[in-house]
Request: fold
Amino acid sequence: MSKRLGRGYGSGKGGHTSGRGQKGQKSRTDIHILFQGLKVKKSTLKRLPLLRGRGKFSAKSKPVEIDIHKLKDLKKGEKVNVELLIKKSLVTKKDAISYGVKILGTSDFKKDLVFEVPVSK
Reply:
């Protein structure tokens, strides 16, 4: 069984320093979180971008993009909202709630519709 450091006389290490040496960072109770043992290396914590809070490592999500030519079978003056797109199975309910929906206009479209979701220029 190994001898436990920093636990006083009963640990089997002897005197008041308890096997840690005399002075220095490693003789104290806490080692700084950025300490890696060498001055040359940069810590992995130092390399991280300065982002704070929740969602630091999660990927940024974009809305589900639907091309406007997929809406050609809708009637004139019909309201285009998330419920209609789910009903027509152009987008899944899970994706629509998680990421949102955006209509992209890459093709010519002459029908008059009322959009209640974000639309590109």
About this structure: DSSP finds three helices and four strands in the chain. The mean pLDDT is 78. The longest helix spans residues 93-99.
